[in-house]
Every structure is written in C-alpha cells, then in structure tokens.
Fold this sequence. Notes:
Blueprint: H1 4-14, H2 20-61, H3 64-74, H4 76-86, H5 98-109, H6 111-121, H7 127-140, H8 143-157
Amino acid sequence: MASRYESRMSSSKNKKRKPKWLKRLMTAAVILIVIGGAVYYFGPKIASDQLSGYIDKEVEQNGGYENLRNAANANPEVRQFLEEGAQADPSELPFTSKEEATRVVLTKVGPGNLQKIQSMAQDGLDAGEQQEVLALAENYLSEDEILALKYVANQEINQ
C-alpha cells in the first residue's frame, strides 16, 4: 500500500499544468480587450467635446451667433431647414444637446467626411456643395437624427 504522500504525488503528476506562456497570452488578451473597450467607450466622448469646443471658438471668431443668425434668416432655404427643427418635439428626438449631436455625427459620419465638409465650408458652400453635404448626412444619419440636428442647430442659433 502506498503512503498518503506517494498517492498525492502520483495524482499531481497526472494533472496537466497550463504552460506559463499561455497564461501570459490570456492576461495580455484580457488587458487589450479592456483597453480597447475603454477607447471605444470614452474616445468618441473626448473627441466630440474637443470638436464642440472648436466649433464654439470658430463661431466666436467669425462674429458669433448673431452673424450666424442673420445669415440664416437671409437665406429662405436655411430658414425653412431650421424651422423644421424648431417644430420638433424634443422628447421624441434621439438627442437634444450640442455635445450629444457632435458625438453622434462624429461616430456615424466619421472624421474623414467631417474634414471634407470643413474644407468645403471654409470658402462658403455653393448649391452643389450644399447638396453634397445633405447627401452625406442622409447616407449616414437616420431621419430622426437629422431632425434632432435641425433642432440643436435651431437652439444654438437662437440662444
């Protein structure tokens, strides 16, 4: 009969041990998943906050919201566009703040398309470019999101 010590030794030899490299690989994978999740969750929020601040700075440098309001009222198409947002019920919209709007636009439209829109808008938008911007919005955003953008734009211009 084998002693208790011998029986424990023989049973522990039969158990397979995981190699250390496998444990390290699994730990690295878990860490990368956690970091990736944090970037996915917090990245758009940080980027939208920066974009929102940039937009505010640009508006203030170009004469503020008063000039923007006057330009919007001078163009009947823009005025009609903004009035659609003014008539929207905020409780039915997916977002109602500028920060949420920038986050949605940044994640759905993407930084590349936003840079394209910015480069077109620097010299002013002609009718063709306005149609291109609207087509981009319609391709990437739902009708409710576009209506929410109109609502937010109306709120920002008329504050």
